[in-house]
Sequence to fold (567 residues):
Amino acid sequence: MYEGVNASEGIGIGTVVVAVEPDLSFEPHAVEDVDAEKARYKAALDVFCEKTNAQAERMKVTVGENEAEIMSGHIMLAQDPGLVDGINSAIDGGMCAEQALVETSTMFENMFLSMDDEMFRLRASDIADIRTGILAELLGREVVDLSALPAGSIIVVHDLTPSMTATIDKENVAGIVTEVGGRTSHSAIIARALEIPAVLSVSNACGALHNGMTAIVDGINGHVISEPDDEMLSDYRERAEVFAEEKRALEAFRGKPTVTADGDKKVLACNIGNPDDAKTAVDHDCEAIGLFRSEFLFMDAKELPSEEEQFEAYRSVATTLKGAPVIIRTLDVGGDKEIPYMNLQKEDNPFMGYRAVRYCLDNPQEYKVQLRALLRASAFGDIKIMVPLVTCVEELRQVKALVEECKEELRTEGYKFNENIEVGIMMETAAAANIADILAEEAAFFSIGTNDLTGYTMASDRGNDKVAYLYSWYYPAVLRAIKNIIVNGVKQGIMVGMCGEAAADPLLTPLLISWGMEEFSVSAPSVLKTRKAISQWSKADADALEEKVMKLKTAEEVKAALEEAAR
Ligand code: PEP
Ligand code: MG
Fold:
């Protein structure tokens, strides 16, 4: 069995097809007629863009609008003046077009790779994908074609690039295995959109798996099994059937209100990173946006996005949600989220350092650009402002004072905005959990960020394998922190939600119901599953389980008790 990242749920059983990348080797040579060489590059680039455009059109139909935009993004990136000028000046220096392309694009790729953030690593893989495409055109070779695979194929490939995915006929593909990529890589996003089970980052998959082998891709647990015996095959066939049945059954929850077994109404919201995600969230039947991670707007840009650019993005989400609540978190830079053009200094302990609201309050002029954009967009829907990484009430007060300053400016300038815009807190530090009663008096709402709250409460860095066993919300310390936040928020009469990954954990659902949490904000594919989990618990049953679980002393006992109750 091989282990990897469970990137797209489901179980695929089929026959391995190892997709071999084309041989794109060439002899670098000096050129004399640089104008002719630049024209040769331009011709290859034009053909590449034409083909990519055709792929994007096809993808709109076979995969979806959002995923097709990844291909359109390739065209923009290939035509980026920085890249094109770099290649032309390398040719001016006497390099052949192939070498100019490889050297210039590799320089850009390495620049993106040197940045810690996942978004920039995505850009690096886009650049590599574009290089392969243009180089194939220059050399007159074919790129991997996955359009004519036999039914029941398991694609095994080093990296499934968006351009390869564009050609996939999903009916014939039972599973995907790659050697690189994480849950947020483009291959993962596309595999999920196509609903093909996928396990990524399986080391040496292309060497270990061979054409014609039978393989099982377990996208639920991140396992790949080659040449399974009969017993294993029938076990996995059964699991595949159970998965398919569960998925069919979830459709019964589409379009339905989110209510507990005894009819208590909850809100099922989605977490998003850009305005397009808002459309996907609505397609997946969400009722609100519980977290818009605004830093993605900043990561996608080359410089700080202007008030106008931010306003357009926030307004677009508000309009897509047609009046339903949209919680927008102000810039959460720092920690593991690096934005290169902001030139923040490297710190020994970035998670304890100059991050999120700390940075913003230290740079009020920059912060006000975002607050003004949020206020202006509030005229187009129910936008709420959420402050990340709060540890003391002073921070909330300072943000609210800046919001008031911005309101005053906008009034003078004649802009419309929601005078009563809510300013709430992302409850994600141990400090905030401890003073939830104090914060509840001054915050309009709470949203619990369990991703950070778990790490900060347990003093455990999720990225560090040696202490990963401590990173779990089943520890009594984390549960007590969550309970303290919800109970104090409810007591004060403010809305309390959760937007960390724990919101989609069905084992926690009864505890959250017992404490009175109102909003569950999850990723789009988890909407129906979470609505179902909520529907299964009455307040009385949830309270009984809560009483039992909160007396337990270890995470293992807690998890076992919650699992037993879920059965
Ligand atoms: C969280 O910390 O739980 C959260 C939702 O925010 P992020 O994952 O962006 O830090
Ligand atoms: Mg966080």
The chain has a mean pLDDT of 92. Residues 291, 293, 332, 428, 449-452, 499-500 surround phosphoenolpyruvate (ligand 1) (CB under 6 Å). The radius of gyration is 25 Å.
